Amino acid sequence: PHPILRSDYRPPAWLVPAVHLEVELDPAATRVRARLSVEPQGGTPGAPLRLDGAPGMVPERIAVDGRPLGAEEWRIEGEQLVIPLDQGAHIVDTEVVIAPEGNTQLMGLYASGGLLCTQCEAEGFRRITFFPDRPDVLSRYTVRMVADRARYPVLLANGDQTGTGDMTDGRHWAEWHDPFPKPCYLFAMVAGDLKANRDRFVTASGRSVELGIWVREADLPRTAHAMAALKASMAWDERVYGREYDLSIFNIVAVADFNFGAMENKGLNIFNSRYILADPETATDADYDAVAGVVAHEYFHNWSGNRVTCRDWFQLSLKEGFTVFRDQEFSADQGSRAVKRIEDVRVLRAAQFPEDAGPLAHPIRPDSYLEISNFYTATIYNKGAEVIRMLHTMLGAEGFRRGSDRYFDENDGTAATCEDFLRAMETANGVDLGGFRRWYGQAGTPRVRALLSHDAASGTARLSLAQIVPPTPGQPDKLPMPIPLRLALFGAESGRTLVPERVHILSEAEDSILFPAIGERPVLSINRGFSAPVVIESDRSAEDLAFLSAHDDDPFARFEAMQQLMVDTLVALIEGRPADEAAVIEAVRTTLADEALDAAFVGEAVLLPTEAFLGDQLAQVDPVAIRRAREGLRQRLGRTLEAQWRAAYAATAANGFALTPVAKGRRRLRTVALGYIAASGAADAAALALAQFEAADNMTDRYGALGVLGSMVAPERERALEGFYERYRADALVLDKWFTVQALSTREDTAEQVARLARHPDFTLANPNRLRALVGAFAANQHAFHAADGSGYRFVADMILAADPINAQTAARLVPPLGRWRRFEPMRAALMRAELERIVATPGLSRDVFEQASKSLG
Ligand code: B3K
Ligand code: ZN
């Protein structure tokens, strides 16, 4: 396979202003008749019309301007249909037959449950019909769907419904028209036996929008939260960005088999059901938040993605980074801003930092790819969002809004670039973002060294800053990037604010700031709110970190100081150096005792950093030493503060289910406290957890208890796992949790249990959620996955190879954990490489898995 290069971009030779589709839906043989109005675009006179297709797809009929073409008048080149045409506008008809029920890749038109549905981003439309499948070809679509009325009573597509009717043969039809020109990746249609939760939203300018969330009838009671989130998102985008919805219908459909979280098709979002369905019995508080966040994300794409789309797939972060930033801010406005920021930074550190430090590192605007599906990454999405957030920080909320208004106005109805976005921000604010562009082109997480010195005699303090952007594949040398750092100074003795928060932009490799009139020893609070996606290296003592964790006025900075204190202590323990364990225990005690803090924050702040994150701090990951040190500290925290954990547990006792931020925070802290009670080794811990499990009136408490039990060796564990299975075996989304909790267990026998679960009758490679629930979770369980004998690597590689022919996109997502081999000692590294080599040597490998595995070896 040859790489696609960003520098090779050329505008399309032919445009397709209008598309008319006629689709006779049938799971075994769906007939698609496409009528394209095509017209040449200056630049490449004489170029033939090139339409993308899928492997093995052949047209049954082709006509140009109504005249059927003979076999010599067209050809198939690779997977493209090539038709020589005279300059000038033409009508091109093609007809193909496709088989949705055999489509296990879940791209294009496929069957899920009893439904037929589509997924076209990035390159799925070419599996439905021959078409220039690139985002800079924008068309107006009319779709006529025909299907069996009994089996598929509901027929949905983008835009407005313009007609329906019955046929004499038991089939019926529906016609939809979308007035907004769109790229084909935003095309969607769904046929099935669905019921809608219907509602309505009146836009700021008074237009009424019919809302529908379409699910299986039995799932209707689980759609209320998604509907509330949708309406809140619509109002938020009007208030914060001045963006109104633009069609009279907005539909969402939930499907059980989906490669990703959801898809923002114009007026017809299609969702992985796990991001729609929620009720207290089956969804945790985290699930509820994810539903709201993804509903908002897809809705926000209507402007950041659909009205303004991407010129080419190298610009993916233009819509994804911006839209993640928008959904993060929406969620922050709905609940606790500090806790939301903590969660988002956790995700960035768990998923994006390792990516940025490994063989698959790429900038948020990549330069090349083999398979675009591999670039829907934490870098494009989450680092992309951080880059937008830095612009927001530097320009201020109003300046950022001026820039986004200008961006939407200037680019509405077009396929734009990251450069267009930056230029709109610049012109609207009269600023030069020249150096900032490096964030788009350079990969790697910058490291910022921050050293504060104090001269008591002169009453001055000096902060020395230095940045290093590490080398990444293909980018050995980096230039410094503008890094906005929110910082403040506090008095170590008085606790007073000595220098209130300011934003300092570190633009050069090195820089220093002089602070006058600093009479007492200052303590540095830096990268507050995580203002830049960087690693801070400072020499703050355990005492100073403990001080900040108790006194900083930025809650994120308090969390961060506690984390750093825990990391420093654990790294020392892992490396066998003297460690200030007492400082951690006292800081946790102080946080637990602070009545001004809300429970949600406390629940986050007292958690030890994950084993994986600790691994990232070490020159070489030693999973066994990390596990031992972390579990040891957990146990001592549990024991020393046992009375405090029991008090916190009692104070947060279940008291009727409510979905308020306060009730959610209490549930969070309750399960965290239960975990520490179990870690202490208390004799009643398993019984306490089982009691919580059995008495729970909601999934958060039940799954929280199951998570604690899952790592224990106790009969209560087996009882809870069996009870959970029996209770939820018919509910796929909850059964996923049953697989995950066992894959994440810290027990010594986790690898065997997971291998056994892979043979369980409820395990299937065909459903992406299930595959991720077991294999994805196992690969994230550092200690179990990195078993010294290589059994974890072999298992995951076997699963990748087994899944690849069925669903290449999902299989490829399991490869990166194996690609981290450079971070391990030579024995493990060799075992990991051997599995990657075995994967690469497998005949018939998909392009998706080939790209990830071969680049991981490189
Ligand atoms: N835009 C979709 C991406 C799905 C493509 C997966 N290959 C989801 C989202 O970011 O909203
Ligand atoms: Zn998105």
UniProtKB/TrEMBL annotation:
Name the UniProt key words of this record, in alphabetical order.
Aminopeptidase, Hydrolase, Metal-binding, Metalloprotease, Protease, Zinc
- What Pfam families does the entry give? DUF3458, DUF3458_C, Peptidase_M1, Peptidase_M1_N
Q: What is its EC number?
A: 3.4.11.2
Instruction: Cite the InterPro entries for this sequence.
Output: Aminopeptidase_N-like_N, Aminopeptidase_N-like_N_sf, PepN_Ig-like_sf, Peptidase_M1, Peptidase_M1_dom, Peptidase_M1_pepN, Peptidase_M1_pepN_C, Peptidase_M1_pepN_C_sf
**What cofactors does the UniProt entry give for this protein?**
Zn(2+)
Source organism of the structure: Sphingomonas morindae
Name-wise, this protein is Aminopeptidase N
Peptidase M1 alanyl aminopeptidase C-terminal domain span: 543-857
Against CDD domains, the record matches this protein to:
M1_APN
> Would you say which domain of life the source belongs to?
Bacteria
**Family to which the UniProt record says this protein belongs:** Belongs to the peptidase M1 family.
